[in-house]
Predict the structure.
Amino acid sequence: MKLHEYQAKTIFAEHGIAIPRGRVADTKEQARDIAKELGGRVVVKAQVLVGGRGKAGGVKVADTPAAALKHAGEILGMQIKDLPVRKVLVDEAAAIKTEIYFGITNDRSARKPVMIASASGGIDIEEVAAQTPEKIIREHVDPFLGLRDYQLRHIASMIDLPREHWAAFAKIAHGLYNVYKNTDATLAEINPLVITEANQLVALDGKLVVDDNALYKHPELETLRDSDEETPAETEARIHGLSYVALDGEIGCMVNGAGLAMATMDIIQLYGGRPANFLDVGGGAGAEKVAAALRIILRDSKVKALLINIFGGITRCDEVARGVLTALETVGARLPMVVRLVGTNEEEGRKLLADAHMLTATSLADAAQKVVAAAGGAR
Amino acid sequence: MKLHEYQAKTIFAEHGIAIPRGRVADTKEQARDIAKELGGRVVVKAQVLVGGRGKAGGVKVADTPAAALKHAGEILGMQIKDLPVRKVLVDEAAAIKTEIYFGITNDRSARKPVMIASASGGIDIEEVAAQTPEKIIREHVDPFLGLRDYQLRHIASMIDLPREHWAAFAKIAHGLYNVYKNTDATLAEINPLVITEANQLVALDGKLVVDDNALYKHPELETLRDSDEETPAETEARIHGLSYVALDGEIGCMVNGAGLAMATMDIIQLYGGRPANFLDVGGGAGAEKVAAALRIILRDSKVKALLINIFGGITRCDEVARGVLTALETVGARLPMVVRLVGTNEEEGRKLLADAHMLTATSLADAAQKVVAAAGGAR
Amino acid sequence: MSVLVDQHTRVMVQGITGREGLFHTRQMIAYGTQVVAGVTPGKGGEWADSVPVFDTCKLAVEATAANCALIFVPARFAADAMLEAADAGLPLIVCISEGVPVQDMMLVRPYLDKCGARLIGPNCPGLLTPGGAKVGIIPGHIASVGTVGVVARSGTLTYEVLHALKQAGLGTSTCVGIGGDPVNGTSFLDVLKLFEDDPLTEKVVLIGEIGGRDEEDAAAYIANNYGKPVAAFIAGQSAPAGKRMGHAGAIVEGGAGTASEKIAALKAAGVRVARHPEELPALLA
Amino acid sequence: MSVLVDQHTRVMVQGITGREGLFHTRQMIAYGTQVVAGVTPGKGGEWADSVPVFDTCKLAVEATAANCALIFVPARFAADAMLEAADAGLPLIVCISEGVPVQDMMLVRPYLDKCGARLIGPNCPGLLTPGGAKVGIIPGHIASVGTVGVVARSGTLTYEVLHALKQAGLGTSTCVGIGGDPVNGTSFLDVLKLFEDDPLTEKVVLIGEIGGRDEEDAAAYIANNYGKPVAAFIAGQSAPAGKRMGHAGAIVEGGAGTASEKIAALKAAGVRVARHPEELPALLA
């Protein structure tokens, strides 16, 4: 789960990391009032859960409350990568001397957290990593020992941080590591971490992504979830425990298992079709879950045909068939459907669907070819 | 550093461990008032930093506030193993169904904390360990992983704890492990941990010994030190950073280094004398420290002769000599002294002491024989 | 000896009294697997069908000499279950449970390594040695006895491949479902080595997916004179970069770990790579 | 090769700019030891006499190829210093600092083991190979070149023994002060093995004290056909049980670890045990 910048920075501040003064606003008038309260120059920042807001014009500096009102009005009307901006963060503007990058993430190969730091923060860190990898300092943390002071001295000296800032940097780094641990983060990042003209280290921007699997430990984080940032289909999928990602194609897919779902999308593409979504109903999915999945797919107006591919192991094919029938009663069968049921109770499942005017297939290749044809043929 | 029972139990309670209601009292009247406040039967317990208070009559049950007053008066007048009792703990008396032992200490061989549990708590656990070792359950904790729930289920099943108490036991055990970690304890012990007639698990008595080397991390614990429980000599030694233990003999020893100090005591004994103390002035001891050490030793009226044995490495022999002279100016040289100085600046040291009417020795054996003779000969 | 498990393997099921644990215990016993013990805290002394239940792994091992743990407990108890099995001395631990937090696994994995325990999973379908033993949830009837070693990250995709092999008349020596979590136990590489040393395995099928570098590491090993022919399929060729695909492992990390990179690495190592799962049997010919 | 250190050893001193660190650095250099680097955070770029100072161990190792760390930092920084040295790849770490909390050492020791670093100490006088190198605080002039290997827990008592050997005309191959803390690095047993394999060591002196089981473990090893004659002294025969004797290690634990037990174990193993330190030279004859 991704958190908004303002949420991440609030958590950072609770862990002793200096952040700019500021607050979040839903309306341009609120933004103006916050600017007035802060005094001086402010920066108005779109709060959306996608990158690239800067280049999209979602971050603007305002010298006066009136300018803050104007900028907030514009930004709150924007869409960034199809996501409408519903909140802006109004922060006091910092006088920046130096911009540093500092982040902590999981290194799956090393099976350890890794700290990543660079003297070249602020701009796209991935660009820096690609062009000048020697400017990126990596330091693993032993998960049993935790972060040790000498590691921070190593980083500080490698990014040529002036010595007067070492103590402040250590405090921020320990704070960020504690954020990472205490929230079960997969990414905790400060970019840029700035040295201000007043010689203070301040976390100007913050990103925090937490491990969905660990949310049960952190109920307070679950309340920060912004379902405004999900499409209604994503919200419904999450509530029903389905794994769903909308895509651009015209063939809807309902599959059990993530690997098989990807393989099903791949074979659709192989035969010239384009998948409209990834949807994994999971293991042992019952009729209700299947019905919800079908409703979610059929709500997408781009979908021209549907492929249901179930390999019954824990999942029973007859249960799946029942779910399909239930959903069709509600939403109506407006599209051609190809169904492939293999494994546990496949006969019963096929029998249930026999009267529902569906195309059936035995092999995956057969199913893919049929659904591509039904959607209008290979493009 | 050993803590009193009432201090240990307060820390236990802060970590979620159930303890009896109760408070500590300095006077018998306070004890009576506490008994009144608690209502019902109470137990009045001497607070001294030595074991065996029960057998010494330092723990008594009182049915009424008047009885509490009487018992407290008696106990506050006692000496237990030469230590005067200055405080009593007045706890509500528990109706005990079962007594369990549970403790956590360092296992130096395994280099890990070890939990020790027994269904036979309450009585002398060392006796149980010696007579029926199979009744003692040992379970190491991995210091990196910390205490895991399955270890507590293992202990609970091995001590035949009824299942209804497993959750409460796990809570207490986690609490005690956190006490152990958070105080850098070398021993954290609940004995007895009782199941009451009301079916509650309660820590009736508690012991906590913390690692002196880790006190710098826990300034709040340093304030719990009860210097009433030290002899004035011990307090002075601690303030001057000297390692000092009073013994029963007649030959005072001042040595640099604990191993050499022990070896010096051993050789005194070998030649028929008895050491009056262990005293290690430490490495690099200056004149002031040496003077303090000498004052501490000479305050002991049992001391009939003194052996100063210094092997100069970091410690400079001339500094030691100066300290001896300084101390003698204050306390006066009422006793025969044997001095052996070897190593760094030994010549200068010997010269300084040449006029102070001291016996000198070159070998350790020579020094020991001379001091034993000076103290009146071998016994 | 087959790979990892056979008819002599003595399985201890952690979470045996749960819905999934009990269902699959029955399936395994029906398949002929020796399930000798179950563990459910607080239910020691009871029975799950014919299997005695214990409060702790240590007690189960002492009483039954179990030598393989199979874990079905809910995700929040899975880390503890793995550690307990390792502490009780089990040399092989198969964790079916899905949803174990990554930071938990970063503690569990090195501890298990230290104990000398091999972990399969978590979030995996387990092991199937047709004619020998089934330790996990892979449906037994979809594979027949044979000489193809199968190693895979995902569940139902694996079944699809076993099914396709059987349809084509090809049997399986052992199928190892290693799971797709970012931090797990046994890797593709580990299983390739086991197959290399296994006289009953003649050819190997590797079923990978996007994310991580496990397939690339396997390719590098195969390139260095691997002794047996390998065919592979990589799922996720049509997946957009950076979208989460249900498996925590199936995230394309910083441009690396894409399907095309994995396929290129495998092809360069001499592996025949299928365009879709049903092509695999033909590539083994 | 002598044991552990010689004239080729390249020493990095952590805490070199402190009072003790600088004093002993000078002593070591005067003895002929190669002190190639110092580490004091925040003083990188400065010099301690002729020794360059670095901010971190990694930088020091990169610049100077140091292969032995010597630690003089205050106790509260000692754990970090040991971990840093191990992380920087130093294979030998000698920690003089005393007063390191036991629970810190319970984390440090296994981490160093994992890194493959050998630790001497903490709370120890370090190493002296007469005519080769001095890495620590043992006064150089009290020992001469020779064939007696000395291993000891305490500081000044060790000096006493070295002095007695020299007075008797006996030289030392290497003296290893292992320290007396409850959880430390190298044990008596480890050093006995090193001496066994060292052609320059002909006889061994072991200086133990009350507390722990290290001497008993050493005795068990010696009893099993140890190849060289061993003489020993155990301090603390007159110590009352349970009293703390300054060394954290010198606590008699639960009746075990007393001087008389240790002496009995050593005698049973064929070790000649001295009644006082100055008897040792005669026992080596």
